[in-house]
Write a structure and sequence with these properties.
Length: about 325
């Protein structure tokens, strides 16, 4: 095979590889976007869970307070029934006294009638006593009737309160189970959210690696064609550069050691490609090969730093989770 044919073959294979890589890159970009949408929905869902949990806890608190009020009211109702029974006992004593008084008044009237004119005044007193005894009996009967009504109403209230307390206890059990389910679901959603976060980080890191694989393939295509086939950009430009200096990388990863180690190999990859481009016109094979070697070594270091950044972030999250 002639050298020209070999170069043509290498060029075509590199172009095919680049096309396949671009397809993978496009799919990964869509995955990042969809995953970010899912994370936003999960954040909203988590907030709704927290609101629902707070409301559930408030309802449980109100139910416990209602139980306390019902219990206190039930105790008061029982005490009132006990007082009614005691009053009824007193009324029975008054009734017995009234009956005895009435009997004495009757006997006194009989004796006064026997005494004739001498017992007339005593007869008047006996009649008044009898009338007072009768009024007392009527009053006692009226009070007893009212007490029975109050007692019936109190017993009905106690029955209703017992039902309310039973229902309140059932509601408390249901609410407690509901709160437990919410707490479990909230924990599961946090785990899902954390896993999605890890997945997003890994997808982006993979996408960043893929960008640099394409960068290298484009560099090799340029060498085969012996002319730059893409516009050279500095290390601070492009997806990874924006991520590192301005975007999510700086926001979420800048506290990790490997983040600070990424800048140097990142810069070297771009500088090496620049060296290759500068020596293509003069066909300086030695300098071109040196540039390619530096580009390969530096890109490997970029990949190592990216992997380390993800591991450090995940390790920090696991440590915080264990501490909590």
């Amino acid at each position: 095979m002639a050298l020209e044919d070999l170069n043509e073959l290498m060029l075509n294979e590199n172009l095919r590889i680049r096309k396949g890589l671009e397809t993978i890159q496009s799919n990964l970009v869509e995955s990042v976007e969809l995953n970010e949408q899912a994370r936003q929905l999960q954040r909203n869902f988590n907030q709704n869970f927290r609101d629902l949990k707070d409301r559930s806890q408030q309802i449980s608190k109100n139910t416990r307070e209602l139980d306390a009020v019902l219990t206190k009211t039930m105790d008061s109702a029982k005490e009132m029934l006990a007082n009614i029974k005691e009053i009824s006992s007193f009324l029975k004593g008054i009734t017995e006294i009234a009956e005895k008084t009435n009997l004495l008044a009757l006997n006194a009237s009989i004796e006064a009638a026997r005494a004739g004119e001498a017992g007339r005044g005593f007869s008047v007193v006996a009649s008044e006593v009898k009338e007072l005894s009768s009024q007392t009996s009527n009053l006692v009967s009226s009070v007893e009737s009212s007490l029975k009504n109050v007692q019936t109403s109190s017993q009905s209230v106690m029955s209703n309160m017992n039902q309310a307390m039973d229902q309140s206890k059932n509601n408390s059990v249901i609410l407690n189970e509901f709160s437990l389910n919410i707490a479990e679901s909230e924990g599961e959603m946090k785990t899902i959210s954390q896993n999605n976060g890890k997945n997003s980080d890994r997808i982006f890191i993979t996408l960043a690696k893929l960008d640099y694989v394409i960068w290298k393939v484009d560099t090799y295509i340029s060498v085969v064609k012996m002319e730059p086939t893409f516009t050279y950009t500095s290390h601070s430009s492009g997806r990874l550069g924006n991520w590192y200096y301005e975007g999510a990388g700086k926001q979420y990863f800048s506290n990790f050691p490997s983040y600070r180690h990424l800048e140097n190999p990142l810069e070297k990859v771009h500088a090496a490609t620049k060296t290759v481009f500068e020596n293509i016109p003069s066909n300086n094979a030695t300098k071109i090969l040196e540039g390619i070697e530096t580009m390969e070594q530096s890109s490997e270091r970029v990949f190592e730093c990216l992997d380390n950044i993800v591991r450090e972030k995940e390790g920090a999250k696991d440590t915080m989770k264990s501490a909590s």
